[in-house]
Structure formats: C-alpha cells, structure tokens
Write a structure and sequence with these properties.
This protein is of the alpha/beta class. Helix content is 42%, strand content 13%. It is built from 16 helices and 14 strands. An 8-stranded parallel barrel has the order 1-4-5-7-8-9-11-14. Strands 10-13-12 form a 3-stranded mixed β-sheet, with no helix packed on it. Strand 7 (181-186), helix 8 (194-201) and strand 8 form a beta-alpha-beta unit. Helix 7 (154-170) packs across helix 8 (194-201) and helix 10 (239-250) runs parallel beside helix 12. The protein starts with a helix and ends in a 7-residue tail after the last helix. The model is unreliable at 1-19 (pLDDT under 50).
Length: 401
C-alpha cells in the first residue's frame, strides 16, 4: 500500500502531466450576419454571388460554402448561436478561442466584427474558457486606401488599437497567456515593419507575446510564429507536402515561440464565388488529415495547438458541426483531447449533439418563457458537465422536423 506521502506525490505528478499537455484552441471567425437577426445576409454568406434566400436542396440555403453549418446559416451576434458554440467547445474539451479581429474602427465590417467579438468574449468567459486575439494588421492599409485615415496617422491608429487591447483584454484573467505574457497573433504582418511593431509595444501595461505567419515573422521582428494550412498558388497540397512544411516550422521551437496547427483540410469557395482563383486545396481524407495534424502538433514542443478553423466556411477549414460532414471533425478533436487529458471532456461523443438540440429547441420555443427557462437550465447543466440531467430536460420537449 502506498504511504500518504507517496500518494500525494503521485497526485501532484498527475496534475503536472495534465497541465503540461498542450491546450487546444480554435481559430474563430466572428463575421457572419443573417437576415433573421441582422436584417440582411452578410458578405461572408453571399460573397456578392450566392443568394441564401434560395434553397440549394434538402432545405439548405445557398451560401458561400461547400458545406454549411448543421444549425443553418447563422449570425455571429446571436446569443443562441454563441451559447451553442461554447457548449460544443466545452463538451469537446476545447479550452478557448483565438478570434480573428479587425480592430476598433467602424469601417467596412470592422465595427460589426468588434461588436461580435466583445459579445463572444462574454460567453467564452461565462463558460470558463479562454480567449486570445488574432489581429489583421492589413486593416491599417485598408483604412488608408479607403481614405479613412491619412498614411501619416497609421502609427497613431495602430497605437490606439494596441492601447485598446491592453486596457480591455490583455490583462483579463480569461485572456490566454504564453510564457507569462498575453498572446497576440498577427495574420501577417502584412503592413507594418519591424521598427513600427517595436514602437507599438512601447508603453503598454501588459506587453504581449506577438506571433505571426512563419514567412513574415523575422522581417517584422516578432517573437514567434503560428503555423497555418500551407496552401498557395492554387496547388493541391499532398500529405507529404504539408507534413514536411509543418515539421520545418516545429523545428524552430524552442529557439522561438511556435504555435502548432491542426486542420481538417482546405477547400475554398473563392473561384466559385467569382472573387479570384482558389488558393489551393488539402484533402480531408475522411478525417485523417485532422487526426494526423493533431498528432504532429502533439509531438512538437509547442505551448498550444490552434485548430484552423472553427468556422471559416469560405475556406472549408471547419470543425464546427456541418450539414454534410456532421460531427466527425469535432468528434476527432474530442477523442484526441480525451486520450491525453480525460478530465477536460464531458459525456460521450454522442453528447456533442445536445448543444445543437438545445439550439433548435431554443429557436422553436422562442417566446415561450416557461420552456426557455428550462432550456437555460439545461445549458447551465451542460456547461457544468451534468449531462444526464440536461438530457432529461431537453427530451421533455418535442422537436419539429
């Protein structure tokens, strides 16, 4: 029999091993607008070509995607959508979101994205998840080209963006930290140079750890890189090709910070939408691409795994449940996390259907206060990992087909 001291040591070691596992975060797009919620179909559902008012078959709306969400075309400011999404993440063991963010200016859809991001963060925090930001610095270029600011004001605008992040998010307990610093991803950098990035850090209360795309990090003098699905030139990227590229990225750790990536594949809609040629493709291989990129990331010496993406429907990198692909990708992620850190998941793989059932019931019984109060109780139970009581509540109410 183990002594009390040996048992305590074993317990502490088990805690260290759990904490040492790389957390899994999902890259999240907060840019969707739907007609029922916002009064119009947003560009990311239409891309100026598709008409969601038309049905493409089996009751599925036409949209800028090869495979729409299982809950239908949604609005990123819909609280029912946000609740459903964080419930799915929580049950799968996903620990947080890295949100694609365009800054604080009300230009194009930047203001909408900023509002939706703030709304999402509330749900993320309530669910006990964490969040971080991926800033699109090309927005500064677009502000200049759109005559919103003169080129001479770029640094002042950049300072205001970093200052807002520093004041409102970098110091938040729910904001993701790596090596004791708030993590900021930059999709690029595509506009600012090394001296400008250095200046943007000056005077911040919470100095961030800034990571960019692998081929753009060193010229900008950033702290590290985050890997991304390596498509380019319209080519078909084979498993051998992406495996070689990702291995090269991961070999740069621990000399510099590296954020590893997992992805289900890549199949964009841009050519069909008439925007431009396709960036290329990565075959999903019936889920094996996601499984293998997760495993490759797990074998790397990186502090976390970013799944690209939760919901970029235009590029077909989605792990959120879909009308055709179903729950496969999310089940793969859940299985991966459960094998490494069982305490991070709740219920079973089949239980991933419960948040979607909750969402459909919430929409069907909207306005019926007694029912919606019970559904809110079920959502709270799911967040707490109390699956069976939540299921019993959800099964009380018939669902229309």
């Amino acid at each position: 029999m183990l002594s009390m001291g040996s048992m305590l040591l074993a317990f502490l070691l088990s805690q260290i091993s759990v904490q040492a596992e790389q957390p899994v975060f999902v890259h999240y797009m907060p840019w969707y607008a739907s007609k029922p919620v916002s009064g119009q179909w947003g560009w990311h559902w239409t891309m100026g070509h598709f008409n969601p008012d038309k049905l493409a078959g089996k009751g599925i709306r036409e949209a800028a995607t090869h495979d729409p969400p299982v809950i239908g075309l949604y609005d990123s400011n819909d609280p029912d959508v946000l609740e459903c999404q964080v419930l799915l993440m929580k049950l799968a063991g996903i620990e947080g979101v890295i949100i694609d963010w365009y800054g604080i200016t009300d230009f194009r859809d930047y203001g909408l994205v900023h509002r939706n991001t703030q709304h999402l963060v509330k749900f993320v925090k309530r669910a006990g998840l964490k969040f971080a930001i991926c800033y699109e610095d090309q927005t500064l270029k677009h502000l200049v080209e759109g005559k919103q600011i003169p080129a001479s004001q770029v640094m002042a605008q950049g300072k205001s963006v970093m200052g807002w992040l520093d004041k409102h998010w970098f110091g938040d307990d729910a904001y993701l930290q790596v090596d004791g610093k708030p993590l900021l991803l930059v999709f690029g950098p595509q506009y600012l140079n090394q001296s400008q990035w250095k200046a943007l850090r000056t005077g911040l209360k919470h100095s961030p750890l800034i990571c960019g795309l692998p081929h753009l990090v060193q010229p900008a003098g950033l702290d590290g890189l985050f890997a991304w699905p390596p498509v380019s030139g319209g080519k078909t990227i084979t498993p051998e090709m992406w495996r070689k590229r990702l291995t090269e990225y991961y070999a740069r750790a621990p000399q510099e910070t590296v954020i590893s990536v997992a992805f289900p594949g890549f199949r964009d809609i841009y050519q069909q939408a008439g925007l431009h040629a396709s960036y290329g493709s990565i075959d999903a291989r019936d889920g094996r691409t996601l499984q293998e990129t997760l495993q490759l990331a797990a074998e790397s010496k990186t502090p976390l795994i970013q799944v690209a993406t939760w919901n970029d429907y235009g590029e077909g990198t989605v792990v959120e449940p879909q009308a055709q692909g179903g729950y496969r990708n999310l089940e793969i992620i859940r299985s991966f996390i459960a094998a490494r850190s069982p305490r991070k998941v709740s219920g079973t793989a089949r239980d991933l259907r419960l948040p979607v059932l909750w969402y459909r019931l919430k929409k069907q019984y909207a306005g019926e206060q007694t029912v919606t109060a019970k559904l809110d109780e079920a959502a709270a139970l799911l967040l707490a990992g109390d699956i069976e009581p939540a299921r019993r509540i959800l099964e009380e109410f018939p669902l229309d087909e």
